[in-house]
Amino acid sequence: MRWGPLIECDIRDEARVRGALEMYKPDLVAHFAALAYVGESVADPARYYANNTAGTLALLEAMRAMGCLRLLFSSTCAGYGIPDHPTIDEAHPQRPINPYGWSKMIVERMLEDYGKAYGIASVSLRYFNAAGCDPDGEIGERHEPETHAIPLVIEAALDPDRPFTLFGTDFATPDGSAIRDYVHVNDLARAHLLAGEMLLDRAGTHVFNLGTGVGTSVFELIGAVKRAAGRDPVVRLGPRREGDPPVLVASYAKAERELGWKPQCSQIDFIIETALRWRERAALA
């Protein structure tokens, strides 16, 4: 298989996970299995704690039983909650404001404890706004329902019957819309490779922000889609959502210092171009 062998199972099925580890004997486990809709987590927190938190506990127990002692964990900036200052480093207090953020933050706490007690080395990578698609258009982003801003703005440019709702134009930002830090998936992938290589040589529990240090407002995002698509996205204005901070931008200084990582292809126009290429190719499939 081009993308490697596939075993499908519920992450909470410790016996099945243990069997997969026994079969392949990996040097490390990269853990991406999570539910990630903030609104859904508020409406149904039990589902998020069962899958994201208890599921990771089952995975850790399977790893411990099989002597697999390295974990690369896909975490989130949602653990920071409402930031004290616009640019966030890893020392910023974690104060989640939704069950999704809590479900991931609890896992990070578990990893610290499992590291001290059982010697499981780990890296938690706190993504900011993962965005963009494979530049060759072979794989990309498709969610049901779609909640991410970039594919929704692209859809609003390609289909006038599917307008994009801009939540809030009264933030304390230059144009009144919220500012976020978008990082291309290729940059994220490279960070995972570097973190995995570090884990093979280094014990301990580590956390890194993955962002660009550059913020893009929602209005700027709409402008970038217009440039790429050659047409205006249909936009309707809505009230700001409760708990939305005006600015969320990462400091990636620690990742640069310890992993040798910095974003290389996360310019907003490139992100939009790759996402649009994927959307157009997927529509023809």
Please outline the helices and strands.
Elements: H1 14-24, E1 29-31, H2 38-43, H3 45-66, E2 70-76, E3 87-88, H4 99-118, E4 121-127, E5 129-131, H5 149-158, E6 164-167, E7 179-180, E8 182-184, H6 185-201, E9 205-210, E10 216-217, H7 218-229, E11 235-238, E12 247-250, H8 253-259, H9 268-284
Helix pairs in contact: 1-3, 3-4, 5-7, 5-9, 7-9
Characterise the protein shown here.
This protein has helices at residues 14-24, 38-43, 45-66, 99-118, 149-158, 185-201, 218-229, 253-259, 268-284, and strands spanning 29-31, 70-76, 87-88, 121-127, 129-131, 164-167, 179-180, 182-184, 205-210, 216-217, 235-238, 247-250. The protein has a four-stranded parallel β-sheet with strand order 1-2-4-9, with helices on both faces. The chain has a four-stranded mixed β-sheet with strand order 3-12-7-10. Helix 1 (14-24) packs across helix 3 and helix 5 (149-158) crosses helix 7. The chain contains nine helices and twelve strands. The protein folds into two domains: 8-127, NAD(P)-binding Rossmann-like Domain (Rossmann fold); 132-183 and 212-285, UDP-galactose 4-epimerase, domain 1 (Alpha-Beta Complex), CATH 3.90.25.10. 37% of the residues are buried. The model has no long low-confidence stretch (mean pLDDT 94). The two termini are 21 Å apart. By secondary structure, the protein is an alpha/beta fold. Residues 6-211 form the NAD-dependent epimerase/dehydratase domain. It catalyses: UDP-alpha-D-glucose = UDP-alpha-D-galactose. Its cofactor is NAD(+). Keywords: Carbohydrate metabolism, Isomerase, NAD. Its EC number is 5.1.3.2.
